[in-house]
Input
Amino acid sequence: MGEIILTAESIQFIALFENMTRAKVQDCIIEEDRLIYVIKQGDMGLAIGRNGEHINRVKKALDRSIELVESSSDPVSFIKNAFGPVSVSSVHIVNKNNKRLAYVEVPSKEKGLAIGRSGRNIDKVKTLARRHHDLDDVILQ
Output
């Protein structure tokens, strides 16, 4: 597991989310217009709630976009979860030049979604992979 350093602000966002949903949060990344929560494996249903009522209540309270990623001790599953709606064909983790790299294959028609506007989706996956599984880079194929 990588090093996760939480700020006072992210701890407050985690506490609020856990109080409103009863789901356990393992990490929170704060960006200008969105919050990315890493949810304990198995707690995604609690985090979302019936018909999305929990997640929508949190979005309304914080007035921000919220993204949820289900945690996994397996780096391959974690990376697939982090890509969200993108269909990940395969993930290969290799050690190369003293670096741990994840090569991720996605369908060519979904590459744009995997990268995201200004690279924000792939940057999110890289940050989470570094923080949770000590991966130095995630490379799309």
